[in-house]
C-alpha cells in the first residue's frame, strides 16, 4: 500500500467511515429516526463539560500517561508510517483522526457503548464497551499473525481495554454523552505515536 498517497488514504478513510457507520445508521433508521437525529443518537454533538476543568485536566493527563506507560511496558508500538519522514504527517493525521478516532469512536463509544449504557446503566455499559474494544484490538493482532505472548496481550488487549473505559468515562461522565472528546483524544494519542515513529 502507498501510505504516502493522500488520495489513497483519503478514499480509504471515507470507505472506513461508511463501513463503521452503516450498522449504526441502519439501526437508527429502523428504530430511532423519529426520536432524534443520527448525530445526536451516536453522540456527535457539541460537548458540554459537567465537572470542573481541574478534574478534566487530571483525567486527560492520566489517559496520556497511561498510553506512555503502555509503550514502555509492552514495547508493542508500530505504525504504517514508521521512518517515512515529513511526507507522512498529513496521511498519518487523516488515518489517526478519521480512520481511528472518528470511525472507532462512532462504533464503540457512539453505537455499542450507548446501547450497552441504555440497557445496563452507565458504569456497566462503559466497562462492557471497553472490554469489547480490547477484544477488537486483540482480534486484529491475531489476524496479523502476531505471536501470543504477555507483551502482546498487554499492548493489544489490556491497554486498549483501559483506554476504551477511559474514553467512555470521559464521554459519558464528563461531557454528557458527546463522543467528540474521545474522537479528539483517540486521534491525538495515535497521531502522537506516529509522530514519534515517523522521524
Word description of this protein:
With 199 residues, the protein is mainly α. It has one domain. 76% of the residues lie in helices and 0% in strands. It has seven helices and no strands. Helix 1 packs parallel to helix 4, helix 4 packs across helix 5 and helix 5 packs antiparallel against helix 6. The protein is globular, with a radius of gyration of 17 Å.
List the defining traits of the structure above:
199 residues, globular, mainly alpha, single chain
How would you summarize what this structure contains?
The protein is mostly helical and about 200 residues long. It contains 7 helices and no strands.
Q: Average pLDDT, to the nearest integer?
A: 91
Overall geometry comes to globular
Largest sheet: none
Class of secondary structure makeup: mainly alpha
What radius of gyration results from the CA coordinates?
17 Å
Tally of DSSP β-strands: 0
Task: Report the order of strands and helices.
Answer: HHHHHHH
Q: Classify the beta-strand content into a percent band.
A: under 5%
